[in-house]
Amino acid sequence: MTSLNKSQIIELLPHREPMLLIDELYDIVNLKSATAVVNVTKESFFVQGHFPDNPVMPGVLIVESFGQAAAALTAHGLDKSTYENKLVFLMGVEKARFRNPVIPDCKLILKIEAIRSHGRVWKYKGEAFVDDIKMADAIWSATIVDKK
Fold it and tell me: For 113-117, which contacts have Cβ atoms below 8 Å and span 24 or more sequence positions?
């Protein structure tokens, strides 16, 4: 099994700070599954406004983190020519549940799995944990498109 650090993830994804949310990808099974780490800190860009006296990671950014982890898993498993000059866009979120608030300072662990692919469309599922406590889960789809 392979792991990727943040520098290697940057080579696969177009996201940059502050929107690059995943810090590491490990336990990678090519085009099937992986585990990602999001370091949620008091310095994270969203904490200052969401909410200053009671900081919590917005659910939409947990879903974005799932999407970034899935995009990195997929790009890592494909031939570079397949994703070069391409972008991965979220198509839909079928189901997302937020079970517990994600509060800084923590490591948010995302376990993601590719459910199926059909051409350029992929479907994934994921679960998010902090200290083995489930914080959220989701099912979503994404597509690979040409850069415009």
Answer: 113/32, 113/33, 114/31, 114/32, 114/33, 114/70, 114/73, 114/74, 115/139, 117/31
CA–CA separation, 106 and 65 (whole Å): 15
pLDDT confidence band for 1 (50 / 70 / 90): low
27-48 residue pLDDT tens: 999 999 999 999 999 999 998 8
- pLDDT tens readout for residues 126-135: 999 999 999 9
**How does DSSP classify residue 56?**
-
Q: Which are the catalytic amino acids?
A: 50
Give the DSSP H/E element, type plus range, for residue 136.
strand 133-146
Domains assigned to the chain? 2-146 (3.10.129.10)
Bridge partner list, 140:
93, 124
Task: Measure the CA–CA gap between 45 and 83, rounded to whole angstroms.
Answer: 29
